[in-house]
Amino acid sequence: MAEVAHAAGVSLATVSKVWNGRADVSDSTRQRVEELLRQQGYRGRRAWRQEAAGVIDVIFSEIDCAWEGEHLRGIEAAVHEAGVRLVVSSLERGETARRQLLQRLRAGRTDGAILATMTASGPLPAALTRLNVPIVALDPVRRTADLPRVDAANFDGARAATAHLLGLGHRRIGLVTGLGELVCSRARLDGFVAAHEEAGVPLHRDLVEQGDFDFPSGVVAGGRLLDRRHPPTAIFATSDLMALGVYEAARLRHVSIPDRLSVVGFDDLPSARWAAPPLTTVRQPLREMGRLAARTVLGLADGGRLDTQLVVRDSTAVCRDAA
């Protein structure tokens, strides 16, 4: 903006007014500044509230489970209230999809973008910032200090889940984590450790396995834990899909839940209620997170962290060893 102001012979404040669509700039100055902005690859921000129908983009790295669907329910409700349209994109096709998305956005066909999980890192945020597109990061997998963000209280949720198992008398608790470089994975691991420390119970680090937040990795990690010489009496899987994978690993080994193994998940997807037995899990307010992300990108809120809640169902019971 400073370079454009110098080239146009105007103040930085004038460039800012043009960029943000303010009316108190002469037509000749506006045209001169807009042309210089175009030459630099920038575009001005349109005031969506003044248009008949604005457009908000929500961009996922992939769409393959109820997790994304729950977020979309909340986003759709918020944009419907605001009278704007919603465009949903996925980057599953890699670089081709990202390039096509940016081509559309450069044409000025969006008023804001919600970047979900993996899409909030990498080159996409910088490219959208250069286009002057308002952005909010929804449950980002990495630190996004320069972006408004909406996420859940991962640490508190994991601590509550672990404290629940400890309160039932379990002392050998297995953990299935997500990828170590992800913010939510580290927070949930920290909550698991903190609950042990607060209860004065030794942590069995040999009972920690890494998954990938999906069902197959839960089957593999759960199998490794159950095949230990001294297997855990309870497993906390840090996503519902991995917890259901642990269910399958237990079924294959004829380990009954919760009689011989208690299981806790994290998310509270619809499938958690339908599982047999229904899964005790940490409820992430996924719809509320989507709704807050949409309101933030529309300038109606400021992002934030939403509370999690432990939902106790039938997959956990008092440890038989403790009894």
UniProtKB/TrEMBL annotation:
Record carries keyword Transcription regulation: yes
Protein name: LacI family DNA-binding transcriptional regulator
GO molecular function, one term: DNA binding
Species per Swiss-Prot/TrEMBL record: Actinoplanes sandaracinus
SUPFAM superfamilies for the chain: lambda repressor-like DNA-binding domains, Periplasmic binding protein-like I
Residue ranges constituting the HTH lacI-type domain according to the UniProt record: 1-53
UniProt cross-references to Pfam families, sorted A to Z: LacI (PF00356), Peripla_BP_3 (PF13377)
Source species, domain of life: Bacteria
Keywords, in A-Z order: DNA-binding, Transcription, Transcription regulation
